[in-house]
Write a structure and sequence with these properties.
- The protein is of the alpha+beta class.
- Among the domains are: 94 residues, SH3 Domains (SH3 type barrels, Roll); 75 residues, SH3 type barrels (Roll), CATH 2.30.30; 91 residues, SH3 Domains (SH3 type barrels).
- The protein is built from two helices and 23 strands.
- The strands form five sheets. Strands 1, 2, 3, 4, 5, 6, 7 and 8 form an eight-stranded mixed sheet that branches. Strands 9, 12, 13, 14, 15 and 16 form a six-stranded mixed sheet that branches. Strands 22-21-20-17-23 form a five-stranded antiparallel sheet, with no helix packed on it.
- The protein is globular, with a radius of gyration of 46 Å.
- The protein starts with 7 loop residues before the first helix and ends in a 24-residue tail after the last strand.
Length: 403
């Protein structure tokens, strides 16, 4: 009988297998015996762990945010904010001095107006000064004044003769605490020829006015604003705004800023509704809404007629604004009939072709006539149909000849 010999490596494998099986059996038996005594291992909930972590992170972020709110860090300066005006005077523009000569001994004040602190008669007649700016109305100048705490002071502009153009002076805007903000003056340049004034139409909403004597056209409603043209007597304008107690009228001027310009009320005669309801502007020409209250009576309201019967006036009513002599002819070399004082009222009967003279009813309460210069006359009525007369007072026949 043949005997097979098992190789050594195969015997080793068999031994390993037997050992493995024995160990497995022991583990199974031990597991069965320990199952009744061991505590169950809790199942690991991954979702719960994630939720708890998120809650913890959120709590930390909330705490950090609250701490950042309580103690703010430095603000980034990469994008600077516009400067805020402070209560102290702030120079927004460069003050360029303009020479002026004092015309009479003048007090210097801490701000424009009699309420400002006076530094005494700091400027004497004939003395030269450096004017740095003007107030918004142009009635006061800011000058260099070494005897004041600030090195500057305010003086009345009427007491000085300025060597330059007043409209080029920097404008000082006074604030509630009497400090100032200085801004560049309004300027306007007209290129090419002046555009014609618009033609009046029958539109009842228009506010027409007639120029009664040659007038400067300005870009804002003060005599210190830049002049950009003139209006001849007899010109017709369309008013679009007003300033102050109707002292200035805004009107359509195609060559002006935004097609508008300003003229003094004393140089025009409104017709119809006058200024009532027109927009209100400040002294730099900025629209103000709502209009500030005022107790001043509108000077354009016609006087209430008296109940006393009077004859039909021969022409429009006018008021004298300055001492005026009455002549027998349209010449200051002719004999003088009398004198009219400010606030006197007379009736106009004729006008000269050059608009320099008015024929009036003189005395005003009886037939008669005289001639006055139109310089100191404020017309209160409609004089668009006022007839013309020659130098001797003889009325021109209609149609009138070309002047």
């Amino acid at each position: 009988m043949t005997r097979w010999k098992v190789p050594t490596h195969m015997a080793n494998v068999s031994s390993v297998k037997l050992i493995f099986l024995a160990v497995a059996a022991l583990l199974i038996l031990s597991g069965c015996s320990l199952q009744s005594f061991a505590q169950p291992t809790p199942t690991r909930d991954e979702n719960l762990i994630i939720t708890m972590s998120a809650a913890t992170a959120f709590e930390k972020l909330t705490k950090i945010a609250s701490q950042a709110t309580e103690t703010p860090g430095p603000t980034s300066t990469s994008t600077p904010e516009p400067p805020t005006l402070t209560l102290s005077p702030t120079l927004e523009v460069t003050l360029v001095p303009i020479d002026a000569i004092c015309l009479g001994n003048t007090q210097v004040h801490s701000w424009p107006g009699s309420g400002g602190e006076s530094y005494g008669y700091g400027v004497f007649k004939g003395r030269g000064v450096k004017v740095l700016a003007r107030n918004i109305s142009g009635g006061w100048f800011l000058i260099q004044f070494a005897d004041s705490p600030t090195g500057t002071g305010w003086v009345r502009s009427s007491a000085f003769k300025l060597s330059g153009d007043v409209s080029r002076l920097v404008v000082g805007i006074q604030k509630d605490d009497n400090s100032f903000v200085f801004v560049a003056p309004p300027v306007w340049t007209i290129s090419g020829a002046l555009l014609p004034l618009p033609t009046l139409s029958a539109d009842p909403t228009l506010r027409p006015a007639t120029v009664i004597q040659q007038a400067n056209v300005r870009i804002c409603p003060t005599s210190s604003c830049m002049a950009i043209g003139t209006l001849n007597a007899g010109s017709q304008i369309i008013m679009t705004g007003r300033q102050g107690d109707n002292k200035w009228a805004q009107f359509i001027y195609p060559s002006g800023p935004n097609g508008r310009a300003w003229v003094s009320r004393d140089l025009i005669q409104p017709s119809g509704a006058a200024f009532g309801g027109l927009p209100y502007f400040d002294e730099l020409g900025n629209l103000i809404t709502p209009e500030p209250p005022t107790a001043t009576i509108d000077p354009n309201i016609s006087p209430t007629p008296s109940n006393t019967p009077r004859p039909t006036p021969p022409g429009p009513l006018a008021e004298i604004t300055g001492v005026t002599q009455v002549f027998t002819l349209q010449s200051s070399l002719s004999p003088v009939l009398g004198t009219l004082n400010p606030k006197d009222r007379i009736y106009i009967t004729h006008q000269s072709f050059n608009h320099l003279w008015f024929e009036i009813q003189y005395p005003a309460d009886m037939p008669g006539r005289g001639y006055i210069s139109s310089k100191n006359v404020r017309l209160l009525g409609d004089f668009r149909n006022l007839p013309y007369s020659d130098a001797n007072g003889t009325p021109y026949p209609t149609p009138y000849p070309t002047p």
